[in-house]
Write a structure and sequence with these properties.
The structure holds 2 protein chains of 2 kinds. By secondary structure, chain A is α+β, with helices and mostly antiparallel strands. Helices cover 55% and strands 18% of the residues of chain A. Chain A contains 11 helices and 13 strands. Chain B is built from 9 helices and 4 strands. Chain B has helices at 14-34, 59-68, 98-112, 123-151, 154-177, 184-196, 198-215, 224-259, 265-299, and strands spanning 46-52, 76-82, 87-92, 117-121. A 4-stranded antiparallel sheet of chain B has the order 2-3-1-4. The chains are: A alpha+beta, B alpha+beta. The interface between A and B is large, with 72 and 73 residues.
């Protein structure tokens, strides 16, 4: 007696799962965040060092540096920056999808310490005298040349300083604006250099009764002007940043890696599907349905915890398919065993399920231990691998244990397969009589 | 000869497998101590520049581009080509400065239309990564021994961990033999194998425990011959399953190795080697080791219970 209702339920569920996957997977993929090794970008590990002798790198200095770097990253307009303090004196910055990597790295690590000096290098004003967000790009009203306009906190102080300079004999009456002045730098030497730290050395003929200083001419074009004012507004870095580890992937490389690995993944998954179908027939078909749902669910979970998909992460997803199917194989083999020993399809299914759960649990938990260790010790892309591995294992229990069991149960209890033991991959000749 | 895996006597020839395995382990240790590993920049220091082009890249061309970018070509440690010569992987001994990286980027992009990928590692970071890798392998092994000992018995745990350390050593020795570059992903592969190759061993042990439980029902102690039969039958009953569970993972790893991106080729290869070695050790080593350990406890006089 075939129970058609159970069979109908089975096909309705399968159809519903397939429709769900088919209609929403494009949206799901669009939602997936790609790591820097797939869409290009860079990762830099900075060692934070004191700017001046005697400065201490403590927690306060580290968090000030972190804030300064965050402000600069905002200037770059990267959508998913990952900036974190590591250990006592390190900061790891990961930026995926940056267009101009060289420029971005420049902006991140330049100290941008502004100082106003006379030609004898005596410090008159520094970055702290600049009004908050006081730098902006403007255009010379006469020549229409781009310039950077600096607004000072105190009009009086600026008047005083310019008065002091204007009293000096020409051509010594210059207000020299430095970026990243370091001990030992002198005006005479620096002004000769091509890539000078001096951004302006305008002559001051009379005291300026205004809170505005102008940097113009020379290097200032529209782009550099914008960059300079952004850095100045983001604030100077209180420390020196040394790159001790860096890796950069160009967008083209990332795209190639993504395409190749997706193609490889499809081949691998298709091979597993084919294998399951040939070896386990009905159980194999059920495992294919659950594997499709497995991939879908892993991606939902993965996006849900805001994880970033990396190249090894894709590998983990694909390997996960190979591993998740273990649960099906362990159960399906158990069912075959029981069928061979002469049990009916129904009781073989029950015995197979009961005996395989412990094994599946043990086998997956040991992989979970490895993944956990890898997560703890790994950095960036390897961490992405570990996260994917852990998510895969969790989802395996949902799809390849519970859902596939439910689907199998529907099929078995429909009693349609009672006389069709070969549909489970068992040869009639292998079946022992009870 | 017709080999039937479900009829084969796996216990009888255990001394042969042990001998082969001990020989392999000794060879691997020798290999590692004399030939060492081809450590990539991740574990030492240096810089790697990957250049990709539409056309085949010439070595002389690479050297001149690097000179053009302001780096002495003498600094080049090695150049490897892949993907039919359209991908060049250039390694340098030293660390690059931020400006050197920017210059290299600009020069190569101008020449090949595609920006390169550049990684640079300072010696300090390289040492840390190498140290962490060793810690990770040890910690994962320890965690698995504890878990298996807890779920089964210490004897199973010891046999499991010896088998998995064997698998890890074989991967490392394979990479030493062929001097394939070892990078960060390699560690991920070794750890995955450590976690995964236990699966098969556990499947077998599960069956051993089940069959042994049936035999020792009612407080009876199995004799050595009976233990041998239990192990043999357990392997015979689970062998197809052991092979099939690994075969599906091998399929996916092989697809990644053959068709996947160059960056994870070494990773996929390490996985493949580990999967095969894991299959071997769980069939021919782990349960037999357990048997030998169990035999020793049999010889000791039983305490009155």
């Amino acid at each position: 007696m075939v129970k058609k209702g159970k069979l109908a339920t089975f096909f309705i569920i399968v159809a519903a799962l397939l429709i769900l996957i088919g209609t929403t997977s494009t949206w799901l993929l669009k939602d997936t965040k790609l790591g820097l090794d797939l869409k290009g970008g860079f990762e830099v590990l900075y060692e934070v060092q004191p700017l001046k002798e005697g400065d201490v790198i403590d927690n306060t200095a580290m968090s000030a540096t972190l804030t300064a770097i965050e402000n600069r990253v905002n200037v770059l307009g990267v959508s998913e920056p990952d900036i974190r303090i590591e250990g006592k004196d390190r900061i790891r910055v990961q930026l995926a999808g940056v267009k101009n990597q060289s420029e971005a790295r420049q902006i991140l690590s330049s100290t941008a310490e502004l100082s106003f000096r006379d030609i004898n290098d005596k410090l008159l004003l520094d970055g702290s005298d600049l009004k908050a967000k006081g730098a902006k790009v403007g255009y010379d009203p006469q020549t229409n040349e781009p310039l950077v306009e600096l607004t000072m906190k105190s009009k009086e102080k600026f008047y005083e300083v310019t008065q002091q300079i204007s009293k000096m004999q020409a051509p010594a009456n210059r207000l020299v604006i430095w970026l990243d002045y370091a001990k030992g730098d002198t005006y005479e030497k620096e002004i000769q250099k091509e890539n000078s730290k001096i951004v302006s050395d305008a002559s001051v003929n009379q005291p300026i009764n205004s809170d505005k200083a102008i940097i113009s001419g020379g290097d200032i074009d529209a782009e550099y002007g914008k960059q300079l004012s952004s850095i100045l507004n983001a604030g100077a870095l209180p420390v020196k940043l040394d790159e001790i580890y860096s890796t950069s992937v160009s967008a083209a490389f990332g795209k190639d890696a993504l395409d190749q690995t997706l193609f490889a993944s499809m081949i691998g998954v298709a091979a597993v599907f084919l294998f399951m179908l040939l070896f386990y027939r009905v159980s194999g078909f059920v495992s294919i349905i659950t594997l499709l749902f497995y991939i879908y669910l892993v991606m939902i979970f993965f996006n849900g915890i805001n994880a970033v998909l990396t190249l090894p992460g894709i590998a983990a997803l694909v390997l996960g398919v190979g591993m998740a199917v273990d649960a099906n194989i362990i159960t399906a083999e158990r069912i075959k065993d029981e069928l061979r020993s002469g049990k009916s399809v129904m009781s073989a299914f029950k015995a197979g399920n009961r005996r395989s759960f412990g094994t599946i649990l043990d086998a997956n938990l040991t992989t979970l231990i490895s993944a956990g260790v890898l997560y703890y010790f790994g950095t960036s892309t390897v961490k992405g691998f570990a996260i994917m591995l852990m998510v895969s294992i969790a989802v395996t229990f949902v799809t390849n244990v519970f859902i596939s069991r439910y689907l199998m149960q529907l099929l078995v209890s429909s009693r349609w397969f009672d006389k069709k033991k070969s549909w489970f991959g068992v040869k009639e000749s292998e079946i022992r009589e009870l | 000869m017709n080999f039937n895996p479900t009829k084969f006597d796996y216990v009888k020839h255990r001394k042969v497998y042990f001998t082969i395995t001990i020989a392999l382990v000794l060879l691997s240790v020798l290999l590692l101590s004399f030939r060492g590993l081809n450590l990539g920049i991740d574990f030492t220091e240096g810089t790697r520049v990957e250049i990709s082009s539409e056309n085949k890249i010439q070595e002389s061309e690479v050297r001149s581009v690097i000179e053009e970018a302001g780096i002495d070509a003498k600094e080049i440690d090695g150049i490897q080509f892949a993907q039919g010569g359209t991908l060049a992987n250039v390694t340098f001994v030293g660390e690059f400065s931020q400006d050197q990286i920017a210059e290299m980027n600009k020069t190569i992009e101008a020449k090949y239309k595609k920006a390169p990928s550049i990684s640079t590692v300072s010696p300090q970071v390289g040492r840390e990564i190498a140290r962490n890798a060793i810690y990770a392998v040890l910690l994962a092994s320890l965690g698995i021994v504890i878990y298996v000992s807890f779920r089964f018995q210490p004897a199973y745990g010891i046999a499991t961990v010896l088998a998995l350390l064997h698998d890890a050593l074989m991967i490392i020795a394979f990479f030493s033999l062929f001097q394939i570059e070892v990078n960060l992903y390699f560690i991920a592969a070794v750890l995955t194998i450590i976690g995964y190759s236990v699966n098969d061993t556990i499947v077998t042990f599960d069956r051993v425990r089940e069959n042994l439980g049936r035999l020792e029902k009612g407080g009876k102690t199995a004799s050595f011959d009976e233990l041998c039969t239990v192990v043999n039958e357990s392997i015979q009953q689970t062998i197809i399953r052991s092979i099939n569970t690994v075969v599906t993972v091998i399929m996916t790893a092989a697809a990644l190795y053959i068709f996947g991106s160059e960056a994870i080729r070494g990773f996929s290869l390490a996985l493949l080697v580990g999967l095969f070695m894991g299959m071997y050790s769980s069939i021919f080593i782990a349960a037999q080791l357990w048997l030998v350990m169990k035999k020793r406890t049999l010889k000791q006089p039983k305490q009155a219970s």
